[in-house]
Amino acid sequence: MPESIVQIEDVSFAYNGETVLKDVNMDIHRGDYIAMIGPNGGGKTTLLKLILGLLKPHRGTIRVNGGPPSQAAASIGYVPQNAHINNSFPITVLDVVLMGMLDRQKRRFRKNTVRRQEALAALEQLDMADASDKKIGELSGGQRQRVFIARALVTRPQLLLFDEPTSGIDTKGQADFYFLLKELNKTITILVVSHDLLVISRFVKSVACVNKVLHYHDQAEITGDMLETMYPCTGEDVCPVELVAHGLPHRVLQAHD
Amino acid sequence: MIEALQFEFMRHALLAGLLASLICGIMGTLVVVNRIVFLSGGIAHAAYGGIGLSLYMGWPHLPGTLGFSLASAMVMAAVSVNTRHRADTIVGVIWALGMAFGIIMVDLTPGYNVDLMSYLFGSILTVPAADLWIMLGIGLGLILLVTLYYQDLLALSYDEEFARLRGVPVTVLYFTLIGILAIAIVMVIQVVGLILVIALLTIPPYIVERHAKSLLHMMAGSAVLGAVFTMGGLWLAYQWNLTSGAAIIMVAGGGFIISELAQLSRRRHIHKLQ
Predict the structure, then answer these.
(1) Which residue among A26, A40, A63, A79 is least packed, with the fewest CB closer than 10 Å?
(2) Closest approach of chain B CAs to the CA of A210, in angstroms?
(3) What is the CATH number of the domain that holds B149?
(4) Any bridge partners for residue A4, and if so which?
(5) So where are chain A's domains?
(6) Complex ipTM, two decimals?
(7) Residue among B35, B158, B167 whose CB faces A99 most closely
(8) B154 and A99 in contact by Cβ < 8 A?
(9) DSSP line for B99-133
């Protein structure tokens, strides 16, 4: 049994009385690379925020590294959705990465040379060191995402969480992104949230499907009952969604029965 | 302009304008990047309710206005803290109510009536020395606060969710920011009027934002640009005997239009090169 980094037990959550997540159980094991998929409004982002400690579950417990999520902040790297960030903001690439080093205990840090070097090293790892003095708004969507990954990596986290990482990024950029994640996954556990059922990296090791309830599959395949969770329907006649796939390297899906 | 400075009221006006530029450069930067321009307008207008109330109740003018404005600002902060971009309706309601309440209170007060125009456009040419000292104090206080909490303010303004993850006390900091904003706005309105405060809070930071590489640059650049507008406007007002507050705003507006046109032609130029 591999070691767990995140343990989610019987977690339920509701917004304004409306249940978003119900009795969710999941363990994230070290070294895993999970794609969390599900329809919009299905509770993926909520679950992500619960793991991050931004929200508290109404029932059940979440433990990160054996303790409450809020105490594990430095060991979790979070890459938010691109679209949520103000691109005209006056900030350089280096300052964005330095923001990652803000620390609960010592919040007022000086921009000393050691921290600068660490931030530059994180940018170097993502091939973005040359852009360190540029304004963040001057970069392309894909480049910006690399900067946010560097900001998440700068505290050397054990777990990286991505929220809709491929939205607003072109196909080539997406391919580069998934190769990058494959590299990172050699040392870091990865969880990627996506509403796009059809586009998951082929490097993904397991799939969690969230639509109020969670179906976890420790193999990287999408099965019939996962689709049922995603697009619930009683029979083929009422289901408007037919999934089409062709052979490797794209993944073959089971028939919709 | 040099000859104008032999008059004490002109020296005071110039100093008041420069101090207002400094305060508005710092606060305006935070207002523009946090997208709370409308909320600032709400605070500034609702403050008139405080003026009317103090007058009616016979309270000392400044504490009454400050208290009322802080209270209305806290309500606006509370409705906007979690849904930053959807609070505009309630801010609009408080904006209108505060203003109307102030006018009714002034109506109900027998005898002396406050001139609404002087609240709107201020009277930068009649600033007493005491007000200059108060503004200097606020300016220095702001510089100290921003220096101490720069990283937190930066994180809050740029990426609130990430700031929360890194242990920045986002909610407390946001309420503090709005509270300080209310104090700064009310104090500067006393001196230069509501309209000039809104202009100095928004125009210089907006122009500087696209050239600045950090919040600090943006604050410093906005303060300098505000000072240039103020001096230019005062000079125009002196030369052609115009209303000083309005002249300053017209100069700032001119700067705004020139900056927009320059940006437009630059973009076209880049487009052509490609």
Answers:
(1) A40
(2) 22
(3) 1.10.3470.10
(4) A29
(5) 4-220, 226-257
(6) 0.85
(7) B158
(8) yes
(9) HHHHHHHHHHS-S----HHHHHH--GGG--HHHHH
Interface-testing mutation among A76, A88, A89, with chain B (most B C-beta atoms within 10 A): A89
**Count of structural domains within chain B:** 1
Q: Under an 8 Å CB criterion, which residues of B touch A?
A: 33, 35, 148-149, 151-152, 154-155, 157-159, 161-168, 209-210, 212-215, 217-218
- Pick from B161, B166, B213: CB nearest A90: B213
Name B232's Cβ contacts closer than 8 Å, sequence gap at least 6.
B248, B251
- Are A122 and A79 a contacting pair, CB within 8 Å? no
One-letter amino acid at A204 equals V
Fold of A4-220: Rossmann fold (3.40.50)
Phi and psi at B177, nearest 5°, equal -60, -45
Domain that holds residue B265: 3-273
A73 contacts in chain B (CB < 8 Å):
165-167
Is residue B27 within 8 Å of B184, Cβ to Cβ? yes
Tokens of residue B227, six digits: 């000072």
pLDDT digit string (tens) for chain A, length 257 residues: 568 888 898 889 988 888 888 888 888 889 888 888 887 778 888 899 999 988 889 999 999 888 888 888 778 899 988 766 788 899 999 999 999 888 755 545 555 788 888 899 999 988 899 999 999 989 888 888 889 999 999 888 999 999 888 777 777 778 888 888 888 899 999 999 887 655 566 677 888 878 778 877 766 565 555 555 555 544 444 444 444 444 434 444 454 34
- pTM summary value: 0.85
CB B37, CB B44: distance < 8 Å? no
Q: Which of A46, A53, A60 is nearest to A74 (CA)?
A: A53
Using the beta-carbon criterion (under 8 Å), do B162 and A80 form an inter-chain contact?
yes
Which of A107, A134, A139, A144 to mutate against chain B (most B CBs within 10 Å)?
A107
Residue A111 has phi, psi (to 5 degrees) of -80, 65
